[in-house]
Design a protein that fits this description.
The chain is an all-alpha fold and about 30 residues long. It is about 95% helix and about 0% strand. It has one helix spanning about 1-30. The N and C termini lie far apart (about 45 Å).
Length: about 30
């Protein structure tokens, strides 16, 4: 069960990084 929790934490962390990177990319394209 702990491994599932760790994976969820990793996904959340990478999701935030991808989201921020996507926003910066969108701002540059405008």
């Amino acid at each position: 069960m702990k491994s599932v929790y760790d994976v969820a934490q990793l996904l959340k962390k990478y999701g935030i990084i991808i989201y921020l990177g996507k926003r910066e990319y969108d701002i540059e394209m405008m």
